[in-house]
Amino acid sequence: MTKLFALIDCNNFYVSCERVFRPDLEGKPVVVLSNNDGCVVARSAEVKAIGIPMGSPYFKVRKLLDQHGALVFSSNYELYGDMSSRVMSVLSRFSPDVEIYSIDEAFLGLDGFEDWDVSAYASELRTKVKCWTGIPVSVGIGPTKTLAKLAAERVKKDKISGGVNVLCHHASIEAALAATPVGDIWGVGRQWGKRFPSVGVYTALDFTRQPKHWVRKKMGISGARMQMELQGQACFDLDSQPTDRKSCVSSRSFAKTVEDLDQLKDAVATFAARAGERLRQGSLVAGQLTAFAVTDRHNPHQPQHHASATVALPNPSNLTMDLTRAALSAFTKAYRPGFRYKKAGVMLLDLAPASDMQPTLFAPSQMNQEKALRLQGALDCLNGAQKGGKDLVRIGAGGIAPETKPGANRGVKKGWHLRRNHTSPRYTTAWAELRTVHAC
Q1: Of 131, 315, 361, 373, which one has the greatest count of Cβ atoms within 10 A?
Q2: What is the torsional sign of CA 343, 396, 245, 84?
């Protein structure tokens, strides 16, 4: 085999991030909740042993968690995002070809490693990631991305010692395929997972033995490629360069429904600022903006409405002031009184590289544009400063920033802010929340 892929998967990532700065949590049941403390989105092994399923509504399992002394955390995205960046930075030392697949997963290209002891190399990688970041990882290696993914999954399910699973030989690949239910194959949807048993396909090995023309007819090109990948023929290469973005969305569900127009405009202005930050990070500008808000579709007893309006920016921009002005204009058109909205957001459209921006007839003068860019740069510098942190300086339309003191319930001043009653400190991104160490 002339090509190898490795899939690095952080174990119980959100829980592991919390444990890095709280060693006392090791061996204890720990859960992390979704936005607004709604559902369980991460579970330690101890919580899985209790029998609490992923995605369980917190209010339904709270009593059971309390009975077992489980520790509960709200999602701390600032911490998780920073820890993910640290893990990916370590991985880049082990291969020049890295595809960040998700916040807790990455593929590595191992071209040229065929004559190496890849198992020992993967073990060294695990040791370095754990030592330098505190995050435990599993490593799956195979001749295709799908087999590497399957190998990593087998590490966790079979409790393979050493946390490394290499599928490079025919016998080991067949054994792993035979032990994998067809519904667990990476890329097999829920519907196909239910339909396969009716045609005698129960395992991944059964799927690889189906006639190619049948798979192509039933599942199309994606199914055919999936089968080839499981047979050891690489169809997917690493995607180390992100694809060009066509849109950018910043939205959030509220802790409680909101009817007040001023509060909704605060939220929309804040989302516009967040979307602008992402555009500037990617050196992009937007040509159009959509502002929207929706009522709670899970509450049929309340009137339902989807408010949405799109406006074109006079000149493509990524400046917070331009985007905020457009967002408020669009939302004012879309808003209807008498409805209680549960979620709002901003979508930026017609994205293009900032370097390709062509001024329009109504674009601001060069001098005014330079002033606006300098002002935006100053705001970003202040908000990005390690001492200040995000939201040190805000556009007035975004309202007063929520409480950000360590241990406080950040986001309680307005009804639209996120409910996070169990948030841990942002140990790595806020000076005021650094872990305190006492020397004896």
Answers
A1: 315
A2: negative
